Amino acid sequence: MKARQKVKRKGPAKDRVFGCDLVEHLQSSGHDIPQVLKSCTEFVEQHGIKDGIYRISGISSNIQKLR
């Protein structure tokens, strides 16, 4: 059975990521972070810009406290 047919049988995918519930997927895979997110993050960190990629936005006094 094709993957697309499996998704259609389960019904609407409004609460699903790539055809399944995210929590269910993480529990069955034994990971804390979805592989697609991990792969994208690793790519950005290796090939993306360095400054400002993970910004802390907000009130400057709060930012200073975090530093």
TrEMBL record:
GO terms for molecular function: GTPase activator activity. It comes from the Eukaryota. The keyword Iron-sulfur does not apply. Keywords: GTPase activation. GO terms for biological process: small GTPase-mediated signal transduction. Pfam families: RhoGAP (PF00620). Residues 20-67 form the Rho-GAP domain. Gene3D superfamilies: Rho GTPase activation protein (1.10.555.10). PROSITE patterns: RHOGAP. This is Rho-GAP domain-containing protein.
